[in-house]
Write a structure and sequence with these properties.
The complex is a heterodimer of chains A (about 425) and B (about 200). Chain A is about 75% helix and about 10% strand. The chains are: A alpha+beta (about 425), B mainly alpha (about 200). The interface between A and B is medium-sized, with 33 and 28 residues. Chain A: Keywords: Cell membrane, Coiled coil, Membrane, Protein transport, Signal, Transmembrane, Transmembrane helix, Transport.
């Protein structure tokens, strides 16, 4: 079978070799056709490329122009935003100004009201309102700073009403001129005026009513027609202590008590001091001239600390030296109880008073901080109250302590000197006695 | 010279007024303090710087006769008592008796000086507190810059008084301590005189 197929194939091949020239021609035709195709395709390709490049460049141009557009628009929007902000601010300023103007107008209205001037506030035309306000105020000012004569009535001293002329000197004083009486007037309450007790002012009043300005002006100045000028009340001692609170009072009472003790102690000491030296001298004279017994009798008739010490000394003159000195020291110790009386109490008060002042300060500061927690630190008035209370107690403490320290130390020194003097006199007595012996 | 002095006095017055009511008491205390210090300084003058033993020998031998200071005076007194024939225990007691006034002199004004030194800063503090009260009062009444007061016035019052208080206290403290030390030494010397005079005489 296989052989048969092989033979067939050989036969085909031999046939094709027979048609070789025809095949070559066909191929040449085919190649020419394909070449033409290729050229055509290349042409188309270059055309497409050109078209693409043109499209890309146009797109790029478009993008650039769009970006430009965006930039311009953003700038515009920024500008518009700024404008918006500015106009908002303007609007706020205007509303603030309006509020300010309104409050000025209201203030003016309320200030002018007491003088009977009504100010109409036009909410749509503030300039006109302000103009009116200024005009009215200026008129009022001129009016108040001049002397005006009006018809009116005032009360006499006995309470009867009198019709006559009222001479107003600005807004601070008024004179009344009537047939019966004339003179300077004072506020009597409720916008009424009454004659003041100053007869010399009658001439002034008539002169002013006649349009003359007298050389000297008898005047009673008031704040307004219903109120006298009030002097600002000065703080008295009591007010100061009062503002210190309970602790302030405690300090003051302690101080007064200690002052009383100082006076008493000074009284004791001056008594003792004035007696010490004379008694000592007299005792010495007695002892030298009359002897121990007579001296003892003389001393018994005397009173006081120095006499008692001398008595103890003289009674024991004959004992040995050390013993007598002990007795003298003991006698002086006994007397020092009286001489030192109140001394420590005074010094204790002097020491305690500043401490109490400090306590008051702390209490006041606590009150201040309580106020701060409640109301905040906005109003210095609220704070200053507590702080000044705190300081007042310190002040009171020092005011009590300083004089007590000075006086207490002085009295202590004095007592010390008196005791030294007694001791010295006693020892002097012993020495003189021993010398005589 | 005259206008300059006048100017100085005016400045002083302004200073005193700006400190408020505590300035004049303080000023008085300064004067008392320096009077006391001067007195004490005068009292602790020693006649000569030589030692007590040398001085006693000199006075005893008659080389010097007029006492020039406290120690000299004490030695003269002591020698007088010894030369009168009182010696031993009695002599000692008599000398002690005679020295009493010297001890008193040394002690005089010691307490005054100490008290003033202690009190004057307190007075300064008092002025400070008064000034602060004025300050806070003016805060309260809104008269912040009124004449003769207000915040600035209160604060200057507060500061001036403290300043003057310290100016009084510090020199007083320093000088007072120096004088105290000298007077303590002199008290010891008086004791020494007593010992030397009595023991020498007993030894004879």
């Amino acid at each position: 079978m296989k052989r048969i197929v092989l033979i067939l194939m050989m036969a085909v091949l031999s046939l094709s070799a027979a048609t070789e020239t025809e095949l070559q021609r066909a191929y040449a035709k085919e190649i020419a056709f394909l070449k033409a195709q290729k050229e055509m395709l290349q042409q188309r390709l270059s055309q497409v490329k050109k078209e693409d490049a043109a499209r890309v460049s146009s797109a790029k141009k478009e993008i650039a122009s769009l970006q430009n557009d965006v930039l311009v628009k953003t700038q515009t929007s920024d500008r518009l935003g700024e404008q918006l902000f500015r106009s908002q601010q303007n609007a706020e300023n205007i509303s603030d100004d309006t509020a300010l103007l309104e409050s000025v107008a209201l203030q003016g209205q309320s200030s002018l009201a007491p003088y009977g001037i009504k100010l109409a506030i036009d909410k749509n035309d503030y300039p006109a309102t302000l103009n009116q306000l200024f005009a009215e105020t200026l008129k009022l000012g001129r009016n108040l700073s001049s002397v005006n004569v009006t018809e009116g009535s005032f009360y006499l001293k006995d309470g009867t009403e009198q019709k006559g002329k009222l001479v107003k000197v600005g807004n601070i004083a008024t004179y009344g001129v009537a047939e019966g009486a004339s003179g300077v007037l004072v506020p009597a309450g409720g916008d009424k005026l009454k004659l003041w007790d100053a007869p010399a002012s009658a001439a002034t009043a008539t002169a002013l009513a006649a349009g003359q300005m007298p050389a000297s002006l008898e005047i009673f100045v008031y704040e307004n027609v219903s109120k006298e000028v009030e002097d600002k009340a000065d703080k008295g001692v009591m007010d100061v202590i009062e503002s210190g609170g309970i602790i302030g009072w405690v300090i003051v009472v302690m101080g007064l008590f200690a002052l009383l003790l100082v006076v008493l102690r000074g009284f004791f000491l001056s008594g003792a001091a004035s007696k010490t030296l004379p008694v000592a001298k007299e005792t010495l004279v007695e002892l030298q001239s009359k002897g121990v017994e007579a001296t003892l009798n003389f001393l018994k008739s005397r009173k006081g600390a120095a006499a008692r010490v001398m008595k103890a000394t003289v009674r024991n003159l004959d004992r040995d030296r050390e013993h007598v000195e002990d007795i003298v020291a003991e006698a002086i110790m006994h007397e020092s109880e009286r001489l030192d009386r109140y001394g420590s109490a005074i010094m204790v008060v002097a020491a305690v008073a500043p401490l109490l002042g400090l306590l008051g300060t702390v209490t006041g500061m606590i009150a201040t901080f309580d106020i701060i927690t409640e109301f905040g630190t906005g109003d210095p008035k609220l704070l200053s109250g507590g702080i000044s209370i705190a300081l007042v107690t310190t002040e009171l403490g020092l005011i009590v302590a300083i004089p007590l320290l000075l006086l207490g130390n002085m009295l202590n020194g004095w007592a010390e000197r008196i005791k030294d003097g007694m001791e010295q006199s006693a020892l002097h007595l012993i020495n003189e006695y021993n010398k005589q012996k | 010279m005259q206008p300059a002095l006048h100017n100085l006095f005016d400045q002083f017055l302004v200073y005193m007024q700006s400190g408020g009511f505590v300035m004049w008491p303080l000023f008085v205390l300064v004067i008392v303090l320096w009077y006391a210090l001067g007195y004490r300084f005068h009292a602790i003058k020693r006649g000569s710087q030589k030692s007590v033993r040398v001085l006693i020998r000199k006075f005893d031998s008659g080389k010097r006769e007029i006492p020039r200071g406290l120690i000299d005076g004490a030695i003269v007194d002591a020698l007088k008592i010894v030369n009168e024939g009182y010696r031993g225990t009695i002599g000692r007691e008599l000398i002690e008796d005679a020295f009493f006034s010297y001890y008193q002199e040394l002690k005089k004004y010691r307490k005054t000086v100490n008290t003033i030194v202690m009190v004057s800063p307190l007075i300064g503090l008092l002025g400070t507190v008064a000034g602060m009260i004025e300050t806070f009062d003016s805060l309260g009444s809104m008269t912040l810059y009124s004449q003769g007061g207000g915040i600035a016035g209160g604060i200057s019052q507060a500061l001036f008084t403290t300043q003057l208080g310290l100016v009084v206290a510090v020199p007083g403290l320093v000088v007072g301590r120096l004088i105290d030390r000298r007077s303590k030494i002199m008290e010891l010397e008086l004791e020494q005189i007593k010992d030397i005079v009595c023991s020498e005489e007993e030894g004879k």
